[in-house]
Amino acid sequence: MGQIYEVDGRVVWDVALRASRLFIGALHGMSEAIRLPSGIALIEDDTYGIDAGQFKPFVVEAVGSLTRTDHDVWQLLGRGVLVSCLALLYRVEGEWLSRPPVSPELLADALRFESRMAR
In which domain of life is the source organism classified (predicted)? Predict the structure, then answer.
């Protein structure tokens, strides 16, 4: 059994339950840390809806937060959720985030992650 992430009724990610729980936990932590709603919410037992109008500003601020700090722990903890969010935002919008600038390493990880995401 898995969970589905959709935007406007379009499935952008179909992921295993345990992986989804890990992602949602990290997403909520990032949301609290940067004090912005993620735009992702449970709409049915196995389906999360993505509000693109909230999700993109969330990802932009998360990228900015990661690039503005030299705190190693913040960067390491934030990196995993941010890689997932960048790949998911690509699925939502059909293009990679260009502003704020995303490091080549982070973008490479997001590209690799997106290529492994089931639809």
Answer: Bacteria
Q: Would you state the pLDDT for residue 69?
A: 85
Every domain of the chain and the residues it spans: 2-116
The two structure tokens encoding residue 6: 């959709």
- What secondary structure does DSSP assign to 7-36, as a single string? ETTEEEEEEEHHHHHHHHHHHHHHHHHHT-
pTM > 0.85: yes
Question: Taking the chain (119 residues) in consecutive chunks of 10 residues, what is each chunk's mean pLDDT?
Answer: 93 96 96 97 95 97 90 89 96 91 92 92
Three-class SS state of 94: coil
Alpha-carbon gap, residue 113 to 119, rounded angstroms: 13
Whole-angstrom distance, CA of residue 105 vs CA of residue 51 = 27
Hey, how many other C-beta atoms are within 10 angstroms of the C-beta on 39?
20
User: Any residues with CB less than 8 A from the CB of 59 and at least 6 apart, and which?
Assistant: 82, 85, 86, 89, 97
Q: What's the distance, CA 41 to chain centroid?
A: 12
